[in-house]
């Protein structure tokens, strides 16, 4: 347990992806079964242990420490798990510190009453970091900035295997994954997945660079609209049907309407959207409406009726038990069209191909899509096989031009790792009418989109124009006559009651530095508000399941059935 | 005789009305007794200064030879009288030359501890508990969340990381007086024999420590002019020690993909490490942790405890739970940064 906790302790403060991988890989390589397997399960969010309530642990802690002193401590630290871990008086030698596997299996076998007693013994025996790790493990999310995918990548690295082989097997495996590690270390055969209706790793695209447009001709590439929903895989095998995100999270529980409607035997790749079926097919609603249905374990009948979901299919991986991934896109497309015509049912339609003659026509199509839910164009080589991961060349995404505004730099924070001596995280604002005339209101944060040379220039500006310091944050001069104007590109905007400005941007980044522009000429909040699609109330964009890979959050608990 | 006649808090710091002198005064005074060389305790401009030989040296190195009009060396255990107040210095174990100061008159003894720790420190004399009636303790880490781990195990974490990331410079933030040299010495004790590179801000005091006979091995300046690929490669996998503030300076850019480390008791709290962008916190402190503070209060046998800089209220609470009279002094001017 102490070792696993030390790994978590290191991961939580390590910003760089490769450094995290190395820390995990070394842990997996040097830790015996079953501890490493339970560690992998904990990191991927697949560890199923009965939780111990933080309130119970707090009560145990104040049996050992004056309540007032505990309150002072909690007030200072701000985190309950950490406060308990740090104030718990160690009794070295009192008990033997548990291994991770031992802690997990004994908790799994323990009754509700026994759990806290076990915790007490272990907290006595562990060191402060070990106590912290154990409390994190039993009270909920680890939150160490590691995605399930990254943890699997680290495990794959010990055997030099592609992570997709693990992804493909994953749903048929169970902690502590001894057979998986045996295979990765060359001591055993590849485990056989026993899962029914498993997830298959998705094929991803690269963004099309401007100079790559010339490569695209209708002879080689098919074009489709790129829909602004979430990528899903709909699978049925016999009586079992499931809906997965593109990272393999099972979201069947939140979308029973779609799952029940999977009337074919196979695995379909498509876009999950919200919308009702009319006479001319489905009318897709905005992404904000889809968000109402995301991040839920279950869904109410009312929401099912007001926000019906459907899948707009664009590829097939398996049909009637036949794996089609080695076939060309052209052939798969034919099979998909035939399948949907035969067994598409009530909740599936086909993402149409978009005919084009040349790059110019593509450009025009991209600039004026038929529906607002289109966020660009997908380009897929006719001869491309379905390869898991993100191979360069066969598939491109070509998004619409983002929205652009001019905003004023207000605050800057130091970065991490290579950027730790640079102010590289920027909070920017736009003008709005305040009590004493116009004032800047923060509307977002951006930390990429600039070159190294530009970073150095911004950093210099910040150091020379600092008004205030708050720990690692500097307030930068932002007067109408003096300050730095940043051109911010972003994908969309929505109302938000979590931000003072009342708006939240999606995917903001810096597209240009406007040294030439005085802050007084930056945009106003009203301009942003006009970009909000329509004025029905909806929630702020949150990092949803299945969208851009989110390396920062992991959830605990077994996947829903 | 009341303790307040022997020593009392004033705006300028702890003052002895009977002896007419200050301990670690915040502003220039006629007569100052200095516990140790950290700049928030040892300030320049007093008329006369009494301190240990090492502390006087540190002050001279920091402020130049004219930092006071007269300097007097205090030897540990040697009695010096001021107007009937007998003063003795005792090791505090905080940094090189650090002392507690005991005041005695008419059978009443007050001990001002200055900053102190009870852990082993190969760069200075160990703390000696002094029996007294009133004990004045610091409380920098005066909360039960602060229980410092073994310093050599923390050094072990640094060396393990160096093996895991041999291409990255390990930049260790450490305060320039005491902590930096202790980290160097602990590295040597752990068998690390490569040159240790230091920021220019550490050079003077590190030289002073070495002249005081503390073996720190090969120390090299990390302030090489030029930049460019050659310099970057030179620092791959090396340990560079600098003052904590140097990380945010442009100076830090010369190192390849640095691992920011910080040797401080504050690193016990993850959020503190996170806020500072520290990737590898090293919980190494020159201040007493919670257990050391409470143990020391007991060891002194003091019936009354005055608590200064830090988390006064928690330590006062502990004293009251344990039947010891205690009050916070609320002295201002002592800085959390020099820890």
In short:
The complex is a heterodimer of chains A (561) and B (339). Chain A is built from 19 helices and 20 strands.
The end-to-end span of chain A amounts to 29 Å
Mean pLDDT of chain B: 93
Count every helix of chain B, treating DSSP H or I runs of 4 or more residues as helices: 9
Q: What helical percentage do the residues of chain A reach? A: 25-40%
Poorly predicted sequence stretches spanning 5 or more consecutive residues of chain A = 535-561
CATH superfamily of the largest domain in chain A: DNA ligase/mRNA capping enzyme
Descriptive notes:
The complex is a heterodimer of chains A (561) and B (339). Chain A is α+β, with helices and mostly antiparallel strands. Helices cover 33% and strands 24% of the residues of chain A. In chain A, a hairpin with a 7-residue loop joins strand 18 and strand 19 (503-506). Residues 535-561 of chain A have low confidence and may be disordered. Chain B is of the alpha/beta class and 339 residues long. Helices cover 24% and strands 24% of the residues of chain B. The chains are: A alpha+beta (561), B alpha/beta (339).
Q: SSE layout and pairings?
A:
The complex is a heterodimer of chains A (561) and B (339).
Chain A: H1 2-13, H2 17-30, H3 35-44, H4 54-64, H5 67-77, H6 80-87, H7 100-109, H8 114-125, H9 128-139, H10 148-158, H11 163-170, H12 178-184, E1 206-207, E2 221-227, E3 230-237, E4 240-245, H13 256-260, E5 266-278, E6 281-284, H14 287-291, H15 301-306, E7 309-319, E8 322-323, H16 329-343, E9 348-350, H17 359-367, E10 374-381, E11 395-399, E12 403-414, E13 423-434, E14 437-446, H18 452-464, E15 466-470, E16 473-476, E17 485-490, E18 492-495, E19 503-506, E20 509-514, H19 525-530
Helix pairs in contact in A: 1-2, 1-9, 2-10, 3-7, 4-6, 5-6, 6-9, 10-11
Chain B: H1 3-6, E1 8-10, E2 13-16, E3 21-23, E4 31-33, E5 48-51, H2 53-63, E6 70-73, E7 80-82, E8 85-91, E9 99-105, E10 108-112, E11 134-139, H3 151-164, E12 170-173, H4 179-189, E13 196-198, H5 203-211, E14 219-221, H6 228-234, E15 239-242, E16 259-263, H7 270-275, E17 280-282, H8 290-300, E18 304-310, H9 312-321, E19 325-328
Parallel strand pairs in B: 3-4, 4-5, 5-6, 10-11, 11-18, 12-15, 12-16, 13-14, 13-15, 16-17, 18-19
Antiparallel strand pairs in B: 1-2, 2-3, 7-8, 8-9, 9-10
